[in-house]
Amino acid sequence: MKYPNALIQLIRELSRLPGVGPKSAQRLAFYLFAQTKEEVEAIAQAMLEAKQTLKLCPVCYNITDTDLCAVCMDATRDQEVICVVEEPGDVIAIERSGEFNGLYHVLHGALSPMNGIGPEQIKLGGLLKRINARDTSPTDTAAQLEVILATSTTVEGEATSMYVQRQLEPLGVNVTRIAYGLPVGGALEYADEVTLGRAIAGRQKAR
Amino acid sequence: MWRLERYGVDQSERVKCRVSRYRTRSGIVLRRYKTPSGDIILSLLTPDGKLKGICKAGARGQHASRLNLFQHLTVQTFERPNSDLLTLTELVLEGALTGLTDPAVYPFAHFLSELADKLYQDDDFVGQAGFELFSGGLRGLVRHPDPDRVTLIIAWKLLATHGLFPRVQACIDTGVMDDLTHFDAGRGGVTCSSIGRGLRVGVDTTDELHRMGTGTVREVLEHDLSSLAREGLWAALEAYLTVQIGILKSLGALRLLRHTRLESAAAA
């Protein structure tokens, strides 16, 4: 039996979403069909509204629906620390930890030349501009600033971190890298050799 | 089971068929792709050929640190029926070159990986020589003071192991062996100055190309190379790759890095 054209179109569009295969798309399409018109309209409206209102913060490139994102607008946050992350999702992850009260800078990717992502494709220019702008102000200097490199620990993330570090070095910024180590609550015997090796190499004085 | 018996396959053979769906292979990660659901798809270059496999929930699981570019892994693969991708069931890290993340060599490593990935199709026989050449190239990038030269040699040598090395002994039009000044990427060979077809690269470049075709990596590395010949070799390589295997995305970052290196060398 051939599906109606409208259903085929809906399945095709849904299967374009990341993580949704043809079978999941079919399930979602039947689910939407079973909903009331108002409920489907609410979903469609939410998608349209998100698309229309969401944009990137011009300072940190995080996702926002206002002129500046909530973090950049918050004057109570530590203005002397910028945490550099790869994706907007990483900001949420760090915020969930409750351990960081500084600012962010989202690169929107990591260096991957074989995928066509070079230094021009990530939002590094914005970070350099931010730091240079501080340097011209009489009260703020780059030397007071700490930049925490919180890119992922993949090869791409490490390379991006090293590249950013090299770019920031001439500006006299204090550049740090997030620590590597064991997951809290994890047993040592189940840790993989790379993580364990890095954890031992990056050991700290017992406090 | 009755079907297998009809074809003369006994019970013990049937068990053997099942077991053969699992294979253990060792190779270097050429490409890594993370799906939105946290699965990792890897392309590995092994002496038997290139393989593509998926590690379910690899980004979150115990194998996350092993599923990285340029790492040497031993993997157990499981071949699912009706699936193009092998499932990676067990992974052991054999070695990792952490120095490849250095911005001074990172684009070179990507270039070699992308080249190997494009050069070898799935299940193409690579051979121990091709595998050793690629892995030795990555090691050379970290250890040799001139990663630019290492990349150049390994790239041409990889083409040679795949049977794609250009004809450089004599002019492809006249057959003369002197005054070979041009490189014709389209026809895959050098031409003499009287014909002058293709890219003008100079005699030093064509001599070096000839050396690459006949000498070992060590012999070629030990030979002095003028900056003019080096640029000629890069220009010829870019043109040749574009014709033979298509545009490589990593060339953009590579050009940028080489430009920066040349500028800093000139300033020094």
Largest sheet of chain B: 5 strands, mixed, barrel
Tally of contiguous helical segments of chain B: 9
**The CATH topology of the largest domain in chain B, please?**
de novo design (two linked rop proteins)
Largest sheet of chain A: 4 strands, parallel
- Overall structural class of chain A, as computed from helix and strand content, comes to alpha/beta
- Our measurement of the CA-to-CA distance between the termini of chain B, rounded to an integer number of angstroms, reads 75 Å
The number of distinct structural domains of chain B comes to: 2
The general outline of chain A is globular
Helix content of chain A: 40-55%
Tell me, rounded to a whole number, the average pLDDT of chain A.
91
Runs of chain A in which pLDDT lies below 50 for 5 or more consecutive residues are: none
As a whole number of angstroms, the C-alpha radius of gyration of chain A is 22 Å
What strand line-up does the widest sheet of chain A have?
Answer: 4-3-5-6
Structural class of chain B: alpha+beta
User: Do you know the CATH topology of the domain at 63-177 in chain A?
Assistant: Dna Topoisomerase Vi A Subunit, Chain: A, domain 2
- Termini separation of chain A (Å)? 70 Å
Question: How are the SSEs placed, and which strands pair?
Answer:
The complex is a heterodimer of chains A (207) and B (268).
Chain A: H1 5-14, H2 22-34, H3 37-53, E1 55-56, E2 63-64, H4 70-73, E3 81-85, H5 88-97, E4 103-106, H6 124-136, E5 146-149, H7 155-168, E6 174-177, H8 193-201
Parallel strand pairs in A: 3-4, 3-5, 5-6
Antiparallel strand pairs in A: 1-2
Chain B: H1 2-6, H2 11-19, E1 22-34, E2 40-46, E3 49-55, E4 72-78, E5 86-95, H3 106-119, H4 127-143, H5 147-161, E6 180-184, E7 189-192, E8 199-200, H6 203-214, H7 217-222, H8 227-244, H9 251-267
Parallel strand pairs in B: 3-5
Antiparallel strand pairs in B: 1-2, 1-4, 2-3, 4-5, 6-7, 6-8
